[in-house]
Amino acid sequence: MQTNWDDLRLFLAVAREESLSGAGKILRLDPATLGRRMQRLEATLQANLFAKSPQGYALTEAGVSLLARAETAERAMRGVVADLPAQTDQLSGQIRIGAPDGSANYLLPQVCAAISDDNPDLDIQIVALPRVFNLSRREADMAIAVSAPTAGRLVVQKITDYHLHLAASDTYLAAHPAIISTADLRQHRIVGYIPDMIFDRELDYLSDLGISRVSLASNSVSVQINWIRQGGGIGIAHDFSVPAMRGVRRILTDQISLTRAFYLIRHADDQRNTRLSRFAEALSTGLRAEVARLEALA
Question: Which residue intervals define the domain HTH lysR-type in the entry (predicted)?
Answer without folding.
Answer: 3-60
